[in-house]
Amino acid sequence: MNNYLSKFLFTAIICFSVMFTAHNFWVKETPTTVHKTAKVKPPKKKKTKEEKARTVGERLQYEYDLQKNPKTGKVPVGVKELELKEAQKVAVFRGAGSLEKGASDFNIEARGPGNLGGRTRSIRFDVRNANIMLAGGVSSGLFRSTNGGTSWVKVSPNDQIHNVTSIAQDTRVGHQDTWYYGTGELEASTSLGDASYKGYGIWKSTDNGLTWSALTATQTGTLEGGDSPFDFVHRIVVDPSNGNVYAAATDVLQRSTNGGTTWEQVLGVFNFDVYSDVTVTSTGRLYAAFAGTSDSDGVWTSTTGASGSWTKIAGTGSATTPTGWKTIDNYGRIVIAVAPSSENILYVLYDNHTVSDCAGTPAPEADFFKWNQTTTSWTNLSANVPDEPGCDKGNDPFSHQGGYDLTVVVNPADANLVFIGGTNIYRSTNGFSSTAGTTRIGGYLNPNGAEQYNVGGVFHHSDIHEIVFAPGNNNVVYTGTDGGIHKADITVTPVEWTSLNNSYITYQYYYVDINPATGNNLVVGGAQDNGTTSISTGTTAKLIGGGDGVAVGCISGTDTDNQNVLYGTQNGDISRSVFTAGVEDYFGIQPTGAASIFVTYFHLDQDNTNHLYYASEGNLYRTRIASTIEDGTITNNSATGWQNLTGVGTATTGDIRSMATSRNGAYAGSAYSASNANRKLFIGTSDGKIFRLNDPAFSSASTAPVNITPAGGSGIASSIAVNPENDNEVLLTYSNYGIVNVYHTTNANAASPTWTNVEGATTAVQLASIRSSSIIKTPTLTYYLIGTSTGLYCTSTLNGGSTVWERVGPNNIGYAVISSMRLRPSDNNLIVGTHGNGMFQLSIITPTCTDGIQNGDETGVDCGGSCPTACPTC
Q1: Residue 25 — pLDDT band, cuts 50, 70, 90?
Q2: CA geometry: angle at 17 spanning 12 and 19, to 5°?
Q3: What is the dihedral of CA 36, 41, 45, 51, to 10 degrees?
Q4: Are 189 and 195 in contact (CB under 8 A)?
Q5: If phi over 0 gives left and psi between -120 and 50 gives alpha, with beta otherwise, what is residue 674?
Q6: Which candidate, 42, 153, 463, 621, has a CA 20 to 30 Å from the CA of 638?
Q7: Which residues, in sequence order, are CB contacts of 75 under 8 Å at separation 6+?
């Protein structure tokens, strides 16, 4: 392995081992809509450094395993780019014959959350009008507001890369309608090859951010990353003196002198290292910074930006490197900021490779310096980096998750009013020249625990990625965090925050569910780094569980709140949210002694939501009292607790990754017999196996399930969908690349079912990673839906290798990763969870007839004065 690659892999592993220190486990933003009497479930006990590293490794492995080719163990090179290009060719699903020609059979409603935000790494304001804001979600796209964040509209087309990491405006008079945004979050992509957050160049707008087009010169490699510096763009700036565009990319600084048409490398050596940064003064002096793990480590400056014009002012070989600056490879990411009111001053904050886990002598995880260009001298401010009394892992002393959340900004009017962000945000009124003027103003509430900062009643999310000021107002600061966008008046003491997550749809869901009661609009979802949310109506969500949300379930009822919602968190925890005398509370109900993979998985039977099945790696636990169980007791009788279904555990050789119960025509709310041998539970595993367990709620614990795996089935069985009226019909998906991903059978109850490959003739489906599925049955038609890495697809006719899949929701769902689906057959409502754009609720549009003629029927044939119930084409 060459030295550059070795260094990258080592650095990436170190970075990922610490970047989720607080990121994955601690209580996150609680919206203002949570009742004052509510108890949001706290995080688990904080983990040791070794436990954290192990957990991060599990997360990376989980994502990678979903995608790798089982034969090679790798994600195929170029597949991400190819699957997107093929998806763009697929026709839109326009109806299956039960509606007017050219119409869709689905009504699609965005379910948000509209009041909570996801990971945001860049916010910018139009210099002419502070009401015009642009913000980027890491896996959600670019959003624009014209009213200062009161509402947002997504402006990046759905067929473009949504991994927005940096935004910049050309601020020259006459050019201010020109904007740029860069893509790719290296910190959340993995050295294993996961391309979930990888970028593909830079986009440009010339109409003030309304429409965008790709700069083709920045799309020179593959979408997987590693072969182009533009795969990860950490920062874009536009020189206000001449309009030159600079992109701090992977270990190099790129420049364009013609608006992005062509680019040249002006600094650095491209070896795919981790971080870089760039900033520019109003007169055109540039500063660039490269992580200490880079061969170009340190800080550089230039008055022209041209290649060969740069002077190194800190780092290896620089004559002006200050005392206390660490040597190459002994520090990480650097972020820099010029003081706008005194542009000879540059602040430099970097990851000093300390891990403040409260072991030994706790110390801040960053060093801090100030450069004076006039005197060409440095001041070491590191002794004044926040270190409050005591110690709290990932919170205090100053923590930043290995550089994952690290930023610095200076108030436009005061060179000594400086803000730094890591896990928390701090303000100094004296430029960190001493500790006396420093105040914690966001992130966690105090240095002693995981409660979020909530002065004034609005919770401010931890993990600070961006701090900015609006033009013309130096008293209001804005932040971009893992919880979206917030603003605060810094003249108020103590500082209070306001959420601007108003239709800023950026949540990343693992699993979603819908209340089983017909017509009930309650939906729930478990989200990456944003807990578990419930949404009763519309898009307004409540947070009911902290940490990272994963599997969820809605216990039946007519509740319009989050009563009796089941939710899990990573690594096995499962709880039930309840209301008692109007007070919201929760019970932990994980089976005692059970284990779990990183993303906790369980399945709740919609026809009897007391019947709950919990996946404990390859073992399966069952309870018949999910609505009342209050602890995780395992007994010999699942009527009084949990029961280990040992027959399943004996049969499986992989982790349980998917489950589905048959319905046999029994819609939600209908009678459910105490013993029903005709009921089935279908189980899918991580090694491609599919099992059928008869009478799952009442069978003996030792009952062995029937292995019904398709011949050739391999990879992770990501989803199983059962026809709600006929459990002989099953749709099965696998998530991995390079294999057959979609199978179908019409005799699932046979000893050895006949499976058919129904990937069909649609290349985009053949290439995609398939994550979820559903079968919707109407009186005249059956709809088959699959959720993929490039959006939602549907067909009403499965025809083996000739099956044609078409796209659903191109103008709202787009090409988002469809991570989860859950159908309510009683009214055919389907909730769809995406990784980056929240939830969508789909329902079947019922055809209408007038005077015996189907509306929109081009034939216009009279049906004789009346139409059949389903109103088929006449």
Answers
A1: very low
A2: 90
A3: -130
A4: yes
A5: alpha
A6: 42
A7: 64, 67, 68, 69, 193, 194, 195, 224, 737
- Facing residues of 511 across strands? 526
Structure tokens at 717: 């069985």
- Please, are residues 583 and 632 in contact by the beta-carbon 8 Å criterion? no
pLDDT at 561: 53
| φ, ψ (nearest 5 deg) of residue 54 | -65, -40
Q: Tokens representing 707?
A: 């292995």
Evaluate whether 179 touches 133 at the Cβ level (below 8 Å). no
The dihedral built from the CA positions of residue 695, 700, 701 and 703, taken in this order, carries a sign that is: negative
Dihedral of CA atoms 489, 490, 494, 498 in degrees, nearest 10, equals 30
Please tell me the distance from the alpha carbon of residue 772 to that of residue 821, in angstroms, as a whole number.
6
CA dist., res. 77 & res. 637, Å (int):
50
Distance between CA atoms of residues 318 and 296, nearest Å: 11
User: Residue 22 above 70 pLDDT?
Assistant: no
602-629 tens-digit pLDDT: 999 988 888 999 999 999 999 999 988 8
CA dihedral for 431, 437, 442, 446, sign (positive or negative): positive
Average pLDDT, the chain: 85
Angle at 639 between CA 638 and CA 645, to 5 degrees: 15
The answer to whether the Cα torsion of 12, 16, 18, 19 is positive or negative is positive
Coil, helix or strand at residue 400 = coil
Q: Does residue 847 surpass a pLDDT of 70?
A: no
Helix (H) or strand (E) holding 86: helix 79-87
Q: Are the C-beta atoms of 787 and 510 separated by less than 8 Å? A: no
Q: Which residue is it, tokens 């979903």? A: 66
Q: Rounded to 5 degrees, what angle do the CA atoms 698, 701, 702 make? A: 130
What are the Cα distances from residue 199, in Å, to 311, 327, 373, 686, 789? Answer: 30, 30, 34, 28, 15
- Give bridge partners of residue 730 from the DSSP assignment: 722, 745
Per the CB < 8 A criterion, the answer to whether 138 and 186 are in contact is: no
- In terms of Cβ atoms closer than 10 Å to its own Cβ (0-12, 13-18, 19+), residue 84 is buried
**Per-residue confidence band for 18, with pLDDT thresholds at 50, 70 and 90:** very low
Q: What phi and psi values does residue 811 have, to the nearest 5 degrees?
A: -95, 0
Residue with tokens 């440095």: 378
Residues found in the chain: 874
Q: 3-class DSSP state for residue 476?
A: strand
Whole-number Å distance between alpha carbons of 720 and 699: 21
Count the alpha carbons within 13 Å of 291 in the hemisphere toward its beta carbon.
30
**Model pTM score:** 0.87
Dist CA 708 CA 703 (whole Å): 15
pLDDT in tens, 677-688: 678 999 999 999
CB atoms inside a 10 Å sphere around CB 868: 11
Phi, then psi, of 5 in degrees rounded to 5: -65, -40
CA dist., res. 553 & res. 512, Å (int): 8
Within 10 angstroms of residue 746's Cβ, the number of other Cβ atoms is 15
**Residue 536 CB coordination number (10 Å):** 17
How many C-beta atoms lie closer than 10 Å to residue 306's C-beta?
15
368 vs 36: CA distance, rounded Å: 40
| Tokens of residue 784, six digits | 């088959």
pLDDT at 677: 61
**φ, ψ at 218 (rounded to 5°):** -100, 5
The predicted pLDDT at position 224 comes to 59
The type of residue at 710 is P
Written in H, E and C, the secondary structure of 246-315 is EEECCCEEEEECCCCCCCEEEEECCCCCCCEEEEECCCCCEEEEECCCCCCCEEEEECCCCCCCCEEEEC
Interhelix angle 3-19/49-67, nearest 10 degrees: 110
Here the tokens at position 150 are 């009161």
Alpha-carbon distance 613 to 624, whole Å? 9
At residue 548, what is the residue type? D
